[in-house]
Amino acid sequence: MRDKIYFASDFHLGVTSRTTSTARERQLVSWLDHIKHDAKALFLVGDIFDFWFEYSTVVPKGFIRFLGKLAELSDLGVEITLFKGNHDMWMFGYLKEQLNAHIVDNELILQLDGKRFYIHHGDGLGPGDAKYKFLKAFFRSKVCQWLFARLHPNLGIGIAQRWSRHSRAASLGEEHFLGEDQEWLIQYAKELLQQEHFDYFIFGHRHLAYDIQLPGNSRIVNLGEWIHACTYAVWDGTKLELKKWMP
């Protein structure tokens, strides 16, 4: 019986060495193979790839085990939703066509079993970080995408891969909880709750798994990442639970 909804984020496929990325990919395939028997829907909440750009006839090579398993889930009737993260914001039509996936640019508000969910990758939310918010707006602009598409894939993807080696994911350092007053996604959720109610907030981006009670009987769940922790969340119709994949 397919009655569960799964959430995961920040796989960063492609980051660090090929061997490490392939090992992570195999772990993800193992997890997807495990959930395919009871999954009704799968939400991948951004930074699935450490870099992604779709030219008109070219996409980044690799990830065939992972994409093949997603295709299998789609063929089984599992609804797949992909969120654009800060590393893979240049998703256009390829994954939608091949996986019958729904692509989400920013936030998604859902009603599930009588509960309201607010889902977002998490980048660019909350106070501060004006520099990144400016860069995000530029990178997502049609002008930037058109200019990047003019580069030969060998050059464009090569530039992106070199940039990726200096990213937060490539540093391989584990992150630590800063406290509710310093965690900007918690601050953002609390501010949004002053305007309207959500039962659950689900984010990625932070590379830290946590499940925290908020005012008004609301909860915020950060999904963590798959470089160290391999954490995800599952909704069974009555409760949302944060879990760790241990094959």
UniProtKB/TrEMBL annotation:
Q: Which UniProt keywords apply?
A: Cell inner membrane, Cell membrane, Hydrolase, Manganese, Membrane, Metal-binding
In terms of Pfam families, this protein maps to: Metallophos (PF00149)
Under the heading InterPro entries, the entry gives:
Calcineurin-like_PHP, LpxH-like, Metallo-depent_PP-like
- Which part of the chain is the Calcineurin-like phosphoesterase domain? 4-207
TM annotation in the entry = none
Q: Which organism is it from?
A: Sphingobacterium micropteri
Q: What is this protein called?
A: UDP-2,3-diacylglucosamine diphosphatase
